[in-house]
Amino acid sequence: MSREFGELILDLQNVSLAFGGVKALTDISFDVREHEIRAIIGPNGAGKSSMLNVINGVYRPQQGEIILRGQHFTRMNPYKAACAGISRTFQNIALFKGMSVIDNLMTGRNLKIRSNLLQQAFWWGPARREELAHRARVEEVIDFLEIQHIRKTPVGRLPYGLQKRVDLGRALAMEPSILLLDEPMAGMNVEEKQDMCRFILDVNDQFGTTIVLIEHDMGVVMDISDRVVVLDYGRKIGDGVPDAVRTNPEVISAYLGASH
Amino acid sequence: MGFFIETLIGGLMAGMLYSLVALGFVLIFKASGVFNFAQGAMVLFAALAMARFSAWVPEWLGVDSRLLANGIAFVLSGALMFAVAWLIERLVLRHLVNQDGATLLMATLGIAYVLEGVGSSIFGSDIYKIDVGMPKEPVMILEESIEGGLLINREDFVAALIAALLVSLLWLFFQKTATGRALRAVADDHQAAQSIGIPLNRIWVIVWCVAGLVALVAGIIWGSKLGVQFSLATVALRALPVVILGGLTSIPGAIIGGLIIGVGEKLSEVYLGPFIGGGIEIWFAYQLALVFLLFRPQGLFGEKIIDRV
């Protein structure tokens, strides 16, 4: 199922990250091409989430560079990343629990809001029109994710699987060019996983969004991703199309133990 | 009956003013997780600015009308509070991102001293008056329907009305505007808010500005009631039980907590006072807060805090 990929959109070069003496990532380089689904896999503690947090600017690597569409970043931060069109979901769901589904998704439009504080305060013409336009876009996301029936519910009251979906919705509302998914299917049942897979593939297909995802479920990863990076103890041990990674002896030993 | 209602209304009106100060605490705590010990100092600082500007403006500009002078003084004091908010973010908060709550609390304690010191060196430390034309003499209402009528303190009534208006405007701002939504988002989850491109620094400036504005209104109301003096900073201490009662994270909680404490104080003073001695008004609120801390530490409407260790 190898497809034609677009241009290089994101390039990580020799990234190393340490927390005190603990090395989370050691000299990792990989690239992401436009429009592909790129997976990062690895056993627990391999540094997958750290990798995502580096791309998104939550962590600052001690060494290495992030090149985003030809632009070099040594210091990324989450705000800059968001402005550059990177949005993300979180492993243990970081939604705004007290707010409704619609409000959560509307916050995703924040960067696109042009009216100023004063106009908003007086509910002035432009601010009002703008709000309605954003609301229309959010409704499209709601339709896309099939969550119409819960749009007014405070997210804190939703079951876990739906919260995961709202988390994806908020990221989508930003209309990102790169979407980072941190274990989008963790803790879900088979049916929910299938739904989530469908959404991820549809996002990639319909909006042309580049997707970088971390996932534990090997079956899922091999099915939906175009290329896979394998991390173990903060080092890259494999990189390539799913079939190549599956037969890579180093990957097999990392997953099944060296004694195998 | 008439007397009871009179006490009740008096309590509600006093409570509304507590709510206003409590609101300042809640706004900042919600948005930045900081318990702002400087809220009282901000009230004092704002009141000092208002008192002095309203005296200086006629001298500087030769304005005769008191209304105009007060208007200009209000705008100037508002601008000053915005500048204070901006400076606090710039000089203090920005450097303490992701620090422990206790660290930030100590920082606001420092801000309180700086504000008091700067305030008294710019504006002097005498007792000043704020005269915004609040009606002073009480009126009698409902003389036909209730025997003896109801004596209403007009100053308190106007103050309560202003406080209620401000609180509802703020509520609308929080619920209905895009910036309000961003503020609520930051209050809920810093990291997630940043990841969707909400600039924390700007949000903090906005929140401190709003808290400064609330402090200004509270300062004017309390200042015109009690005179502007250093004890005004301790008015904020009276709002402490209110936030404990209502919950530190809830705007409706601040309002209802304020009303409960206002009414509780007045009723207990009047009806319990004769049995256990007077002066209940002074400690009643703290006693109630203590009970809440023992049995319901998150307050009436606050979020239950569960820390993962």
What is the number of beta strands of chain B?
2
State the helix count of chain B: 11
CATH domain class name of the largest domain in chain A: Alpha Beta
The multimeric state of the shown protein is heterodimer
The structural domain count of chain A equals 2
Task: Specify the overall morphology of chain B.
Answer: globular
Tell the overall outline of chain A.
globular
**Strand order of the biggest β-sheet of chain B:** 1-2
Largest sheet of chain A: 6 strands, mixed
Spatial strand sequence of the major β-sheet of chain A:
6-7-8-3-9-10
Which CATH architecture of the largest domain in chain A?
A: 3-Layer(aba) Sandwich
Distance between the termini of chain B: 54 Å
What is the number of beta strands of chain A?
Answer: 10
The greatest interface between two protein chains, and residues involved on each side, is:
A-B, 37 and 24 residues
Radius of gyration of chain A: 19 Å
